[in-house]
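Pasting as-is:
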Amino acid sequence: HVQLVESGGESVQAGGSLRLTCVTSGLPSHTLWMGWLRQAPGKEREGVAHLDNNSRTRYADSVKGRFTVSRDNAKNTLYLQMNSLKTEDTAVYYCANVGLGYWGQGTQVTVS
């Protein structure tokens, strides 16, 4: 049984920082690609950042230089450090392995 559980979302003022956490369990042992996506009200879901199968990081242009994705394999945990938050970062953030169709339930980030 695969589970992805996000946490860390909350309301924060513009310019502030948050760290999102995604604890995974039950993923196949070969699963390396993991990412963060977000969906703002009235908008389509978009990719934010991911680690590919070679652990290289990729970021959306809108978050480059502000967000950092990382993982701790020993803890089966994926992180998203978000700095210099902007109001346009407000969204529900999901961790996922899109290719395998595994998604978390999402965590709300509100920047005001």
